[in-house]
């Protein structure tokens, strides 16, 4: 029993760190968009959507605070992190290929078919093309920042999963 409480305390801290990372990723993106007119492309919006789902998983975990459930949610967050890394890499690939930016990408289709762009347009609407100049924060392209956060989420998730009981 004491060991399980120790495990939950460890997981609580790590889930809180992951929540903060996802929350601030979305917050920084929204501040950049709405105050500094750095409009998101479809791949940016996909990454926002993944951070949004991560935050949703943290809330589910909070109410179902058991060791096995923590590990399941950590694996789910790691899976979303892997998809996020793929989205960040595809964002860079498509932004460097002007020809692919003239067509509708998979990200455009996912966002438009999901309905998130019309349900929450201030968060999930696509306002830019991947052909536009890359957006930077402190001289670092956003896809690198996003990729780094996804890597951190995966590492933290795996540490939750691999923690011995």
UniProtKB/TrEMBL annotation:
The keyword Coiled coil does not apply. One of its GO terms (cellular component) is membrane. The keyword Transmembrane applies. It is a multi-pass membrane protein. Keywords: Membrane, Transmembrane, Transmembrane helix. GO terms for biological process: protein folding. InterPro entries: DiS_bond_form_DsbB/BdbC, DsbB-like_sf. Gene3D superfamilies: DsbB-like. The chain crosses the membrane at residues 68-90, 110-128, 140-162. Signal peptide: none annotated. Pfam families: DsbB. It comes from the Bacteria. Its main location: membrane. GO terms for molecular function: protein-disulfide reductase activity. It is found in: Membrane. This is Disulfide bond formation protein B. It comes from Candidatus Kinetoplastidibacterium crithidiae TCC036E.
């Amino acid at each position: 029993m004491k060991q399980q409480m120790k495990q939950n305390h460890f997981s609580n801290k790590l889930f809180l760190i992951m929540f903060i990372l996802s929350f601030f990723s979305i917050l920084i993106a929204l501040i950049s968009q709405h105050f500094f007119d750095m409009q998101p492309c479809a791949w940016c919006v996909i990454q926002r959507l993944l951070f949004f789902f991560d935050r949703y998983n943290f809330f589910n975990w909070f109410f179902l605070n058991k060791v096995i459930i923590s590990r399941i949610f950590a694996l789910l967050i790691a899976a979303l992190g892997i998809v996020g890394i793929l989205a960040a890499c595809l964002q860079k690939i498509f932004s460097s290929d002007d020809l692919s930016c003239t067509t509708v990408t998979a990200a455009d289709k996912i966002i438009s078919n999901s309905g998130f762009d019309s349900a929450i347009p201030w968060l999930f609407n696509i306002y830019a093309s991947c052909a536009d100049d890359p957006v930077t924060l402190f001289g670092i392209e956003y896809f690198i920042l996003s990729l780094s956060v996804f890597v951190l989420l995966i590492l933290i998730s795996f540490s939750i999963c691999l923690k011995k009981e």
